[in-house]
Amino acid sequence: MFVKNCCARANLMNSRFTEMGVAVAVGAATRMGAYWIQILGTAR
């Protein structure tokens, strides 16, 4: 769904980002049930 967001899509397609981290937190007591995060970056 977030790919419809212009800024998120531009970041995903940006070839300057060469590294990616992904994490998920799951909790039945939370409103969404699971939260995902994706971090894009470049090596120093």
Could you please describe the fold and organization of this structure?
The chain is of the alpha+beta class. It is 18% helix and 36% strand. It is built from one helix and two strands. The protein has one helix at 6-13; strands spanning 19-26, 34-41. Strands 1-2 form a two-stranded antiparallel ribbon. Strand 1 and strand 2 (34-41) form a beta hairpin. The longest helix has 8 residues, at 6-13.
Distance between the termini: 31 Å
Q: Strand content of the residues, in percent?
A: 35-45%
Main beta-sheet strand count, sense and barrel state: 2 strands, antiparallel
Coarse structural class: alpha+beta
Radius of gyration, whole Å: 13 Å
Spatial arrangement of strands, main beta sheet: 1-2
What is the count of β-strands?
2
Number of helices: 1
Look at the structure and give the mean pLDDT.
Answer: 84
Shape: flat
Helix content: 10-25%
What are the secondary-structure elements, in order, as H or E? HEE
Spans of at least 5 consecutive residues whose pLDDT stays below 50 are none
Write the layout of secondary structure elements.
Elements (H helix, E strand, L loop, with lengths): L5 H8 L5 E8 L7 E8 L3
Antiparallel strand pairs: 1-2
Features:
single chain; alpha+beta; two-stranded antiparallel ribbon; 1 helix
